[in-house]
Amino acid sequence: MDLSEAGRELKNAVQSKKLAILVGECEVKYWGRAASRLPRGKRLLLVKGGDNSLSIHQNTKIRPVNYMMDAVISCAEKDGALLIRAEKRKPAEKIEVVFHSLEHFKAFEMEGKNDLRLFGSEKELSDSLAENLSFIEPGLKPVKREGILRKGIVDILAEDKDNNIVVIEVKRRQADFNAVTQLARYVEHVRKIKDRKIRGMLIAPAITETALEMLKSLGFEFFNLEFEISNPKAKIKGLEKRQPTINEFLK
Amino acid sequence: MDLSEAGRELKNAVQSKKLAILVGECEVKYWGRAASRLPRGKRLLLVKGGDNSLSIHQNTKIRPVNYMMDAVISCAEKDGALLIRAEKRKPAEKIEVVFHSLEHFKAFEMEGKNDLRLFGSEKELSDSLAENLSFIEPGLKPVKREGILRKGIVDILAEDKDNNIVVIEVKRRQADFNAVTQLARYVEHVRKIKDRKIRGMLIAPAITETALEMLKSLGFEFFNLEFEISNPKAKIKGLEKRQPTINEFLK
DNA sequence: GCGATCAGCGGCACG
DNA sequence: CGTGCCGTTGATCGC
């Protein structure tokens, strides 16, 4: 397929929300939040009609070397080459792809559904944990939220057997500096509202040495919790209740 | 091309480090850091021989719905379908893609070079700013970083006209909570080492209201600096030195 | 629309 | 290798 025909077909594909694939010699320029130039070379251009996003891929990496989402896409011929322009505003950005030669063009009708089911998100783990707080510590109970703490910010808000407030931050992977400073922010936040002793607790499958140091210096606690995906399960030496795991479930 | 031939061709493509493209009806399962299931539907599978990475794309979004890098990829037939397995360890992960029908298969020889030139990274902006500190404040001078802090942690370490240490954190976009807590960590770190007055300064094109609040409460300063990409240029009312911008340069 | 946070973050650079 | 942190972060959810 020659370049000008590919241009018409691409226009058509975008119109009808198809997925278009182009492979060929091209160069790419980008202006926007940053700026970049990609000299001439063979690449894959993906135009997704489902949401007018566009990516330029090389033969390595998961992420595209150039991309734009919610783009206004247009084609033109220029000096015998195929010029594909993608533009958007907010933020103002522009991509120009110039194909000097095309090795492959194809467009596919696609279904629009996005029905990935993901297990083991932080929210899932956190919710599951909130229902089993006594596993963390006897007498630990979730507390009713109000006002500014109503939702979203603090992962879990609890109360221990001595009526202290416990601010809990859950991480699905190894906790780092950022996790600790987040917890610190939330604890400070709660201190301003509640006139009670506030404990800060970080729950994660692991924590970096330096983050643990900082956590301790702030007087907070770390609880090591190994997650079997979709079911939180504490890794406490010798004490292990057997539960079906998501890995087994999916088998 | 039928499924079994596609399997052989894919194996061949991986062997010879080609870029392989498959479009067809498939379902995807993933086990690893999390777990996911993607029911049967038409999708695009990208296998990049350059680094043995693999992505499954739908007709929306920049990011693939499933993916793996540095994978060990294998093909097999199973109940008349094409089963593509991707595995890796560290972390242990597995993807199974089952193609029930194939609408398209193609593999491309690709060059291995990755020669994107990017302008406007934080490091570039920070370096450029470090050479023009007097623009921020008269008498502000960079101080040799070696021996004071592990290099790379603090964006810029400077000294003002009164011999105070100024810890500077640069952000290429709107600064948020994280930027402030980062700065706070660095300032704390420097305080322990230097027995001098330490100023903390955040330089960014914008800052969220709440982050500014927190910044002030910590006694730090915010300097609004609008960046013309690749050339930092302060947006101070009335005071503007004209310089060619990267946008003009790339024109 | 902006703000805040998660992500199977990915990717990179330094120790 | 791990640790930290940037990213044209992207994607999501609540306000």
SSE layout:
Two copies of one chain form a homodimer.
Chain A: H1 3-15, E1 19-31, E2 35-48, E3 53-57, E4 66-68, E5 72-78, E6 81-88, E7 93-108, E8 117-119, H2 122-130, H3 133-136, E9 141-142, E10 156-159, E11 165-170, H4 177-193, E12 198-204, H5 209-217, E13 221-224, E14 227-228, E15 231-232, H6 246-250
Parallel strand pairs in A: 11-12, 12-13
Antiparallel strand pairs in A: 1-2, 1-7, 2-3, 3-4, 5-6, 6-7, 9-10, 10-11, 14-15
Helix pairs in contact in A: 4-5
The first copy, chain A, binds a DNA duplex (15 and 15 nucleotides) through β4, α4 and α5.
Describe the structure.
The structure is a homodimer of 251-residue chains. Chain A folds into 2 domains: 3-108, Protein Yojf, Chain: A (Distorted Sandwich), CATH 2.70.180; 122-250, Trna Endonuclease, Chain: A, domain 1, CATH 3.40.1350.10. In chain A, 23% of the residues lie in helices and 38% in strands. Chain A has helices spanning 3-15, 122-130, 133-136, 177-193, 209-217, 246-250; strands at residues 19-31, 35-48, 53-57, 66-68, 72-78, 81-88, 93-108, 117-119, 141-142, 156-159, 165-170, 198-204, 221-224, 227-228, 231-232. Residues 236-251 of chain A have low confidence and may be disordered. Chains A and B meet through β1, β2, β3, β7 and β8 of A and β1, β2, β3, β7 and β8 of B. β8 (117-119) of chain A pairs antiparallel with β2 (35-48) of chain B, so a sheet runs across the interface. Chain A binds a DNA duplex (15 and 15 nucleotides) through residues 30, 32-36, 61-63, 66-69, 90-91, 93, 118, 120-123, 151-153, 172-174, 176-178, 182, 208-211.
